[in-house]
Please model this.
Amino acid sequence: MSYDLAILGSGPGGYTAALRASLRGLSVALVESGELGGTCLNVGCIPTKTMLHASGLAWEARHAKAIGLIVSDLAVDADAFAQRVAQTVSILRKGVAGLLAARKVDVRSIVIGPDASVEPAVSGRGALPLVV
Ligand SMILES: Cc1cc2nc3c(=O)[nH]c(=O)nc-3n(C[C@H](O)[C@H](O)[C@H](O)COP(=O)(O)OP(=O)(O)OC[C@H]3O[C@@H](n4cnc5c(N)ncnc54)[C@H](O)[C@@H]3O)c2cc1C
Model:
């Protein structure tokens, strides 16, 4: 299979580049060794902001007495909490997959090793050094 462009890494850098290239009419392969969406979606921005949102709500509830609301029995259900984070990540990952599928970007689940020859290629591998 050959493509006009290969993009290494499906984080926010990689998948937006893939969408942009496909909008310009290129056939694109998006190569990912891990989960679609990269650091941001799977372990970075999204899970941490989901947790921050919950902790913000807990803080509000604890301090609500000042505005006349009394919230009793506030507790953390660790399983439900973790499930909510995983569910949020999963929904957004499906959203990215849907956008890529709609633009006919071919997502390939493989690792590109340091000796691989991919050309032309865009690196979206995050902070990792690239050797192509
Ligand atoms: C805890 C945390 C919280 C964060 N919160 C925020 C935030 O709130 N706002 C914000 O703007 N940024 C945030 N960031 C930073 C953000 O996650 C990164 O800036 C962003 O993910 C970088 O995107 P990227 O596409 O360059 O790389 P990445 O998202 O790192 O994606 C790189 C992808 O390349 C893949 N890859 C690597 N090597 C190969 C290979 N050889 N073959 C195939 N695939 C490969 C990886 O599996 C990965 O999926 C946070 C980061 C962390 C860790």
Remarks:
- Residues 78-102 form the longest helix (25 residues).
- The two ends are 19 Å apart (CA to CA).
